Amino acid sequence: MRSRCWFGLGLSPFRPGRPGAAAFARHRGGNPAPQGWQDLCAQDALTGGRPLAARIGEVPVLVTRTDAGMTAMIAHCGHQTGPLADGELTTVDGADCMVCPWHGSTFRLTDGAVVHGPAATGQPLLRTRVVAGRVQATPP
44: closest CA among 130, 132, 131, 133? Predict the structure, then answer.
């Protein structure tokens, strides 16, 4: 498969030896994103199945909490950079999913996989944890 850059971040799940935190540091224009675990929001802010838009430095992140768990993903759709925070949460075949408002690409929250296109590749996820009631994420 060909390598693809996620919105200038230098990340690609398709290259052998998938890059980690160092690649996440590169952002459009060379502005670095913070490294390590970063605070996104209060856990209590994630209620009613509503997604929340956050940032790690200048990198947009979408945070969701469902019965299946907590998810943080890059907030721009990999198809044509649609704003996933403006999309809707839905359930497809029993799995919680995020639908891009621009073209309807649907991504499974548990692993970022494409459930419905037109997106041809999955949506990148970040590792998450909760510390003292705060949701934190770190690059893959």
Answer: 133
